[in-house]
Amino acid sequence: MIEILSCSEMAEADRRAPAEGVAGEMLMEAAGRAVAEAALARWPQARRVLVLAGPGNNGGDGYVAARRLAESGRTVAVAALAPVEALRGDAAVMAARWSGPTLPIGEAGPVDFDLVVDALFGAGLARPLAGVAAHAIGRAADSGLPVLAVDVPSGLNGDTGAAAGAVLPATLTVTFVRLKPGHLLYPGRALCGEVVLADIGMPGSVVAGVGARTFLNRPALWRTAFPEPNPQGHKYDRGHVLVWSGPEFATGAARLAALGAARGGAGAVTLAGPAAALRVHAAHVSAIMLRPAARPDDLHAILAGRRFAIAIVGPGAGDGVEAATDAALAGAAACVLDADVFTAFADRPNALRDRIAERPARPVVVTPHEGEFGRLFGQGGPAGSKLDRAREAARRLGATVVLKGPDTVVASPDGRAAIADNAPPWLATAGAGDTLAGFCAGLLAQGMPAFEAATAAVWLHGEAAREVGPGLIADDLPGALPAVLRRFQSTVAEGGDSQP
Ligand SMILES: NC(=O)C1=CN([C@@H]2O[C@H](COP(=O)(O)OP(=O)(O)OC[C@H]3O[C@@H](n4cnc5c(N)ncnc54)[C@H](OP(=O)(O)O)[C@@H]3O)[C@@H](O)[C@H]2O)[C@@H](O)CC1
Ligand SMILES: Nc1ncnc2c1ncn2[C@@H]1O[C@H](COP(=O)(O)OP(=O)(O)O)[C@@H](O)[C@H]1O
Ligand SMILES: [K+]
């Protein structure tokens, strides 16, 4: 279940379900039941439950949950934002089946309760919360009671993970069918608390028919493209990665990228740069080769001799990075562009696009964090959610974009995108991004397509950070990869993911 559905894709699935024999009422009943079950499982001691019910189908789910919780012996009251007569469709049906106490929301304080179920607004949130709804949310938040959000915390935009106005932070969110982007993108991810994905009987064929192009970054997304070494192969069958190294006193980043590429599975890795920098590298590396290149233009000749080289340019690149980028784009079979490249092309994304477009068959992966993304695109850059911006950037650049952070988004120019949720906070450490560029190049070197290589690299990077644990420094990441790969390979052999 790696597809992520936007709110409109979810509504489209809802519209198509009856044709497959699944009525809206059945879905709503199953959704409300899942909410009640989650409440009972998580808070078995909670005796008194207040359900905040909104005017749409999210409220409808709330009425079902209220009935189910009351049937299981809980004392339940519904605080309704809209009078029952104002409800429509399935929500009206479910409200009519609720025979317990219902109060106007302004009259129901959470003081006498143990748990709040937030069924005010879900996928249909159309504008920032104000007035009575905002007031009710404020009171629930101030009560300090645990909150179970139905589908998404009310006030949170399920597509963007942002809240334009008041939002009710949840302890637990129960969502249905598939995750929505807002469960994964910050700040939404933090506002959802724990997320439970409930199967409510939506047929898989209906979900497939919607044609979602956004995915959770899990091995299931890229496993079939993951390279397997040929038992009869030699090192150059697994690709040769060339890393441009900047000056003598800024060698660490390029070295981390080189080590990342080697651990990521490249058959050979070469650091190329000024002799003084190579002397520093020589004191640290053994498996990595060193090749003097006094000027970035010298990369042209080096790459011409190694037709299948994958180039990494950017980490610790220093002066001349634009020329190094040109050489890499002209001569390498695929490129990973990071760090200083975004400074060199600051406010000139079209210049980078044009260079990439000169060799359309050669994949390029760019790996900016938010600051670098802003620097590259400047004013008039892609707008919207992190997902929207990464997608738009990929389209504009004609490159696979890895927009890094705690919720790294990988977007392909073909419209596919994936959101990662496995990076621990201690991964935010200097040099971690350089290592990621290396992992990605190591996979590209073995022939993995760009989107798959980038998503796999991001996932492996997060797993490597979890493997090391708190106290991680970037130097630890390459060395942590073998254990992660071993686990991944054994779950592939068993046909499963190492995470649900
Ligand atoms: N899809 C599925 O398969 C399934 C979906 N299910 C459930 O349906 C939910 C989506 O239901 P939904 O589309 O009725 O939207 P919902 O979130 O209840 O809100 C719409 C109402 O709120 C109103 N409104 C909006 N913003 C407002 C504001 N700021 N302030 C005040 N009012 C505002 C809006 O009014 P209007 O904008 O028209 O004025 C309208 O009345 C989904 O999250 C899930 O829980 C399940 O039953 C299982 C199957
Ligand atoms: N809060 C966070 N939680 C988890 N991972 C994070 C967080 N912030 C950043 N990261 C990850 O840490 C890495 C940092 O990369 P980057 O900013 O490029 O660092 P550097 O340039 O020093 O190598 C990226 O992979 C990013 O996705
Ligand atoms: K809600």
Let me know the number of strands.
18
Count of helices?
20
Alpha-carbon distance between the two ends: 9 Å
Query: How would you sum up the global shape?
Result: elongated
**What ions, cofactors and ligands are bound?**
ligand NPW, adenosine-5'-diphosphate, potassium ion
Largest sheet: 11 strands, mixed
The amount of beta strand, in percent, is 15-25%
What CATH calls the topology of the largest domain is: UDP-N-acetylmuramoyl-L-alanine:D-glutamate ligase
Low-confidence stretches: none
CATH architecture of the largest domain: 3-Layer(aba) Sandwich
Rg measurement, Å:
26 Å
The CATH homologous superfamily name of the largest domain equals Ribokinase
What is the CATH level 1 assignment of the largest domain?
Alpha Beta
Query: Which sequence of strands runs across the widest sheet?
Result: 1-9-18-17-16-15-14-13-10-11-12
Helix coverage percent: 40-55%
What structural class results from the helix and strand content? alpha/beta
Count the domains.
2
What is the average of the pLDDT values?
96
Could you outline the blueprint of secondary structure elements for this entry?
Layout: E1 3-4, H1 7-16, H2 24-42, E2 48-53, H3 57-71, E3 75-80, H4 89-96, E4 102-104, E5 115-119, H5 131-143, E6 147-150, E7 172-176, H6 181-184, H7 188-192, E8 194-198, H8 204-210, E9 214-216, H9 219-222, E10 240-244, H10 252-263, E11 268-273, H11 275-282, E12 289-292, H12 298-305, E13 309-313, H13 321-331, E14 334-337, H14 340-344, H15 349-357, E15 364-366, H16 370-377, H17 386-397, E16 400-403, E17 409-411, E18 417-419, H18 432-445, H19 450-468, H20 476-494
Parallel strand pairs: 2-3, 2-5, 3-4, 5-6, 6-7, 7-8, 9-18, 10-11, 10-13, 11-12, 13-14, 14-15, 15-16
Antiparallel strand pairs: 1-9, 16-17, 17-18
Helix pairs in contact: 1-8, 2-3, 2-4, 3-4, 10-18, 10-20, 12-13, 18-19, 19-20
Bound molecules: ligand NPW, adenosine-5'-diphosphate and potassium ion (K).
Residues 339, 369, 404-406, 408, 423-425, 427-428, 430-434, 436, 461 line the site of adenosine-5'-diphosphate (ADP).
